[in-house]
Prior knowledge:
By secondary structure, the chain is an alpha/beta fold. It has a domain at 1-107 and 268-367: Isopropylmalate Dehydrogenase (3-Layer(aba) Sandwich), CATH 3.40.718. The chain is 40% helix and 22% strand. The strands form 3 sheets. The chain has a 10-stranded mixed β-sheet with strand order 2-1-3-12-11-4-5-10-8-9, sandwiched between helices. Strands 6-7 form a two-stranded antiparallel sheet. Strand 6 (147-154) and strand 7 (160-165) form a beta hairpin. The longest helix has 18 residues, at 16-33. The chain is globular and about 65 Å long. The two termini are 20 Å apart. The chain binds 1,4-dihydronicotinamide adenine dinucleotide (NAI) and magnesium ion.
Amino acid sequence: MIKKFKLAILAGDGIGPEVMEEGIKILEVIKKKFMLKLDIKEYLVGGVAIDKFGTALPKSTIDGCLNADAVLFGSVGGDKWKHLPVEQQPERAALLPLRKILNLFVNIRSSKLYSSLSHLSPLKSKIVNNGFDILCVRELIGGIYYGIPKGQKMDNYKRRYAVDTSIYYEEEITRIANFAFEIATFRRKKVTSVDKANVLETSILWREVVNKVAKKYPEISLNHLYVDNASMQIIKNPMDFDVILCPNLFGDILSDECGMITGSIGMLPSASLNKSKFGLYEPAGGSAPDISGKNIANPIALILSISMLFKYSFEQLNIADAIESSVINVLKDGYRTFDILTTNTNEKLLSTSSMGSKISDYLKHEE
Ligand code: NAI
Ligand code: MG
């Protein structure tokens, strides 16, 4: 039986369209190899949408995303639009509202250190000897980033002050915790929940609710860490972690920490999901204006985002695995973009487009 999926593609700005072109090569191979019917439609977002429609998130793009089964996103932003008021700039005006509109309450970032790249990690080789594989599950649309009141004010003594409010509803914690435990059942069955329950009320509730959810998943082991300790343990023993479950702010920070200990942002995929399996998939990095237009950006973060898309939204695990295996094998054979190139003599430097073609070739022949 031929399966049918609708995919909205939002390439955006900077290196977004460059890496997206390589993603489309991969999608073309998948269509043929796995007999999938993929209905792909492209929409404008970010700076390119501002140039054409005067807004970073046109209605046609929103409708296209709402109509699709999943969204593949490149990146947005660049100096050209920095003169605009901040709320009209591509990142603020496109990505943040899109997450809200699509109700993407989960953000997952996969930080894997593949064994052929373990020398890129800033951590000592005895710590990362066989690589690590951490999945950060971050609550994305609650907590201190969205709580009200928020803003800057003047008090009665004419002192200026600012306020942010951290609020979590029990149901918000329950749904993200459920998600983390579900995902852990397909992995190494371990959840580390991060909070600051020694100081913050929201964290006390967080811990209580996570413990309650954990009762439904007796096969998953759960431990709790305060965020300050978590940041230390990740550096000390990254191999001890499987799924890390975090409120919005802590997840923002820890997912960057986990990403950085892989040594390369060009390799990091991410996904933002809601509970109906719908998701937006994108590289963890931005539009990289310093390297855009040069055909040197690493397309692997985007290609691994496609692998996540097939895993979490389309639930085609064999396709997700085939994409990841081709990436692993290309790396094993020494092919590198500039950002992951070292002085090892067996390494061969590839451009963005030749890396995309190389991975497509491997994928065609993947068993
Ligand atoms: P960035 O992630 O674009 O760049 C940081 C560094 O990482 C740069 O040196 C860049 O060359 C490198 N890098 C990123 N992706 C790479 C890849 N695939 N291959 C090789 N090297 C790569 O972050 P930055 O410089 O803070 O922001 C640049 C622009 O991107 C800004 O306008 C920012 O607002 C926007 N941005 C957009 C995001 C999104 O679309 N989700 C996320 C983060 C930033
Ligand atoms: Mg961040």
